[in-house]
Write a structure and sequence with these properties.
The complex is a heterodimer of chains A (about 110) and B (about 725). Chain A is mainly beta and about 110 residues long. Helix content of chain A is about 15%, strand content about 40%. The radius of gyration of chain A is 14 Å and the shape is globular. Chain B is built from 18 helices and 29 strands. In chain B, strand 23 and strand 24 form a beta hairpin. With about 725 residues, chain B is α+β, with helices and mostly antiparallel strands. Classes of the chains: A mainly beta (about 110), B alpha+beta (about 725). Chains A and B meet through helix 1 of A and helix 18 of B.
């Protein structure tokens, strides 16, 4: 029997308050390591992400989609991540997520 | 509260043209209930109906109401004659019987609104019969209470309570004479001498009656030859006068108002009188074919003052074949035809619209030759001498929204060009947005208004089954639905306008086509194109265009699910020739590593070459070559959320997903470099693309199977998503 897969709802930065304590997916640019967390820039806001190892230095921006749990103090505990192409359109993504969590929420999530 | 002038006449006219008596007719007329009506026939005596006569201030007609929802009307009927006269606004009715010539018929009022109850009857409406007999004029008619009060009791010729015979009261004005004339139907050939003199007296008498305000009083006493022209100028003046009256706010003294109002009412009446008189005169002339000094001046010169009176199209019918005015919205090309008796002839057709209706008219033989070069699409004309018959092909006319008659011009018809009539629209448009075209059936006809994005320019075009060369232009257009579509125009239409990029054109009656799954538009015999910056929809599009950021939706053909395609493919097994076109969005799962990945092709064409001893030979080019060109022929598995299929990918598309050319892959294979080979083949693994596929039944080694061939591969781009998002936003805005 397989476990029910976890659902990491896709959200935008302005929805973080509503999703504290839940599993979410955020996309953004990895900035620098600061001790035990990494700075993750999402739509202008810096989110602190734990459990991510920044491996290689790269000449390009590191664009990631991070799935993890948002804890109460605003840290994102990363569980999984995927690299994104350089052509990723964040504005477009933000618009779509606004719709996904807004008018069309029942098409995507329960 | 104003009544609707001439409403009763319009209803009767409409009734004459009604084919289906059960049809509900929508309208917007304000009437006054003025009388009880005691019906003779049983139809109107039904218990559930109440019978009254309603008036529009000029004429009365029988109108029935349902009893049950109108208890107040039930009560109304209890006084006879009525003492209260309700004003109502009727929005729909049904005709209960066919009108008898010159008389009205009962109508059944379906929907109406109660406005007010008046103590007086507005104006002095006549019975419809008398009204028609009087040339549809009632000098004591009025549409508002005020008018009535100032009409002056002493000018009354008709009382609505007594049905006096018309000839009894000595005339105060020339109305009397009109009435005496009416029994002479217009078609009759009158005696030459008597008619002319009567007309003369009529004109002179009218001139005397005209109020001093019109400047033409002096001119009116001039000789007869000038009469017609002056009549028209007088009409023009009166119209202007009328307009001036209407724009002023009359707070003047009672007398002045009274006089002015009288003038206001009269010119309308007089105008009609004059029109009718002129028409009668003209008809006499035409019938007698003589050259009296009332000769109709050269029509082409008198552009501004056409001498022929015209009627609205809805009034024209086989029993009322009068002149009409309209704009030619389409002139078709002149064609030859051969009758059963082997006679040759020419013909062409036009579409004409006036303020309210559209007709289709034909020209044959001599008329076709005479008029084809004269008529210009888009211009306004007065048409007379047109034969009107009930339509032979009613369905076709109904399809285009035309009146149900056949109109035929002959050699003796007259078509007079007139100045632009602003009240007549350029055409009857029913524009749809380009993004709705994709959902419509092939072959349906639509109107669109769009901006030119690209143009192929006018090109020569050889039609398959015709010898003569024609012209063609292909335009890429778009509108504010962000949808782009191609319009192909054949023939003269291709050169009608410059079609510059950025210009906005209105296309009427384009036909929807489909090619390889993509919808496009094309002209047909009904099509016409218009260019007018002032048309409302053009202005709206222009405004949108100024703020437009340039991002259009991709010409999205319907994206299919693979499961849908698989289902559809079953049809291919039944029909060997069936080709299915699909556009799917899927992931490239894997490229088959084994089997033939490439073939040897001729360097000149793309065909497979046969291997000879130390060379390669192409049978179709008859060429021998040392080294063939290697081209990919791959089998790939693609999958979306609904299913997966194997597709074949040709060299051109393969190079998009594999970054080494086929000959290099061959080399790697021969050198045994499996890893490099696999890496090359997996370059695009799990990437998502848009695949355009063609699916067809193919036979291979006696096995028949549906094969899917890739026509094009497009990587998914942000623009795609943006386009879909735009569409969603667009639809959300317009809900």
């Amino acid at each position: 029997m397989t476990d029910t897969p976890l659902s990491f709802q896709r959200i935008n930065v302005d929805m973080i308050q509503k999703f504290k304590g839940q599993n979410v997916t955020l996309v953004g640019k990895l900035l620098q390591k600061k001790g035990d967390y990494v700075q993750f820039q999402v739509d202008g806001t810096i989110i602190k992400v734990t459990e991510i190892e920044q491996e290689t230095e790269s000449s390009e921006d590191i664009l990631l989609e991070i799935r993890g749990k948002l804890n109460d103090d605003g840290y994102l505990e990363a569980k999984e991540y995927t690299e994104l192409e350089q052509t990723f359109d964040f504005e477009l993504y933000k618009k779509v997520i606004n719709m996904v969590q807004g008018q069309f929420r029942d098409l995507f999530y329960e | 509260m104003n009544l609707t002038f001439e409403a009763v006449r319009k209803i009767v006219q409409q009734g004459q043209n009604v084919i289906d008596l059960k049809q509900k007719i929508e309208c917007n007329y304000t009437f006054q209930i003025v009388e009880n009506y005691f019906p003779q026939s049983s139809k109107e005596k039904l218990d559930q109906l109440l019978c009254f006569r309603v008036s529009d201030g000029y004429a009365k007609m029988k109108a029935l109401f349902f009893r049950t929802p109108n208890p107040d009307f039930v009560q109304l009927r209890e006084t006879e004659p009525l003492t209260k006269y309700p004003l109502i606004k009727v929005t729909s009715f049904r005709i209960l019987g066919k009108p008898v010539e010159g008389d009205d018929f009962p109508i059944l009022i379906l929907e109406f609104e109660r406005l007010q109850i008046l103590e007086k009857i507005i104006g002095q409406p006549m019975s419809y019969k008398s009204y028609a007999a009087n040339g549809y004029q009632n000098p004591n008619g009025a549409t508002s209470l005020d008018d009535y009060e100032f009409a002056g009791i002493d000018d009354l010729l008709f009382s609505n309570h007594k049905s006096q015979s018309i000839g009894q009261i000595p005339p105060k004005n020339t109305i009397q004479q009109n009435i005496q004339e009416i029994p002479n139907k217009q078609e009759e050939k009158p005696k030459q001498g008597i008619k002319i003199s009567l007309s003369k007296t009529k004109f002179q008498k009218q001139q005397q009656v005209d109020p001093p305000q019109t400047e033409l009083v002096q001119q009116q006493q001039q000789q007869k030859p000038q009469v017609q022209k002056q009549q028209y100028e007088q009409i023009a003046q009166n119209q202007q006068f009328q307009q001036i009256q209407q724009t002023k706010n009359n707070q003047d003294q009672l007398n002045q108002k009274k006089q002015q109002l009288r003038v206001q009412i009269q010119p309308q009446q007089q105008q009609q009188q004059q029109q009718q008189q002129q028409q009668q005169q003209q008809q006499q002339q035409q019938q007698q074919n003589n050259q009296f000094n009332n000769k109709i001046p050269n029509q082409k010169n008198n552009k501004n003052n056409p001498q022929i009176d015209f009627f609205p199209l809805y009034q024209i019918n086989p029993s009322f074949q009068q002149a009409f005015r309209g704009r030619v919205v389409k002139v078709n090309e002149i064609k030859s035809y051969t009758t059963k008796n082997q006679k040759d002839g020419k013909m062409f057709g036009i579409y004409v619209i006036d303020e309210e209706n559209l007709i289709s008219a034909m020209f044959f033989d001599q008329a076709a030759e005479k008029f084809h070069d004269y008529i210009v699409q888009g211009k306004c004309y007065i048409f007379s001498g047109v034969q009107v018959k009930p339509a032979k092909n009613l369905e076709q006319l109904q399809k285009i929204g035309s009146l149900p008659f056949d109109y035929t011009f002959d050699q003796n018809s007259q078509i007079i060009e007139i100045d632009e009539v602003p009240g007549i629209p350029l055409n009857i448009f029913n524009f749809v947005k380009l993004n709705s075209i994709t959902q419509q059936k092939v072959g349906s006809i639509q109107d669109v208004v769009a901006v030119i994005k690209s143009t192929s320019g006018v090109k020569e075009f050889q039609a398959k089954n015709k010898d003569e060369k024609s012209t063609r232009i292909q335009l890429g257009v778009y509108d504010d639905s962000l949808q782009e579509i191609e319009i192909t125009l054949y023939g003269n239409l291709a050169q009608q306008y410059p079609f510059q990029i950025g210009e906005i054109y209105m296309f009427k009656s384009l036909k929807i086509n489909e090619y390889q799954g993509r919808k496009s538009l094309q002209n047909n015999y009904l099509t016409s194109i218009h260019f007018d910056k002032n048309q409302k929809e053009v202005k709206e599009l222009q405004n949108w265009l100024q703020n437009f950021d340039g991002k259009l939706a991709e010409p999205v053909s319907k994206i299919k699910l693979i499961s849908e395609l698989i289902n559809e493919s079953n049809r291919c097994e039944l029909d060997q020739n069936l080709k299915i076109y699909s556009d799917v969005r899927a992931q490239l799962v894997l490229v088959k590593n084994s089997g033939t990945l490439y073939y040897q092709s001729c360097t000149n064409c793309l065909k497979k070459v046969t291997t000879e001893l130390d060379s390669f030979y192409c049978s179709s080019c008859n060429l021998t070559m040392k080294e063939p060109k290697f081209r990919y022929i791959l089998n790939c598995k693609i999958a979306d959320s609904s299913g997966n299929i194997w597709v074949s990918v040709g060299d051109q598309q393969a190079n998009q997903i594999i970054d080494i050319p086929a000959n290099l892959l061959k080399q790697l294979t021969e050198e045994g470099k499996e890893k490099e080979k696999n890496d090359a083949l997996s370059k695009s693994a799990y990437k998502e693309f848009r695949f355009k596929l063609t699916s067809k039944l193919e036979e291979f080694n006696d096995v028949k199977r549906v094969k899917h061939a890739v026509q094009s591969i497009t990587p998914i781009s942000n623009a795609d998503t943006q386009a879909i998002l735009n569409q969603i936003e667009f639809y959300m805005k317009n809900i």
